[in-house]
Amino acid sequence: MSKPPKLSLAAIVASANPPAKAPLRPQGAEIVSLALAPPPPKPAATLKQRARQMSVYLEPPVYEQLRDLAYAERTKMHALMLEGLDLLFKQRGAQSIAQLTDTQAR
Fold first, then answer.
1. Residue 100: count of CB within 10 angstroms of its CB
2. What whole-number distance in Å separates Cα of residue 73 and Cα of residue 102?
3. Is the pTM here over 0.90, yes or no?
4. What pLDDT score was predicted for residue 23?
């Protein structure tokens, strides 16, 4: 009993996809290329993409108090920390966060 002939991958692919016939064009038909629409504008970068991350190590009682304040005021701890930085900048005569971010947007 003889072995069946080995098939190559190219032969299998060629038999599965017969060559496509060239599309027929009626006489006088033109190929028209359409201009693509410009890409949609990119959305503004998120805070995570714009900002720099910084770790803050807080003692447990300090962390708990900050968390309690945020819960009581129904805000985020991040907002309270930014408020604290703004007060620090004001005390030291530096520009506020709003002033700093306004000048960078220009």
1. 12
2. 27
3. no
4. 64
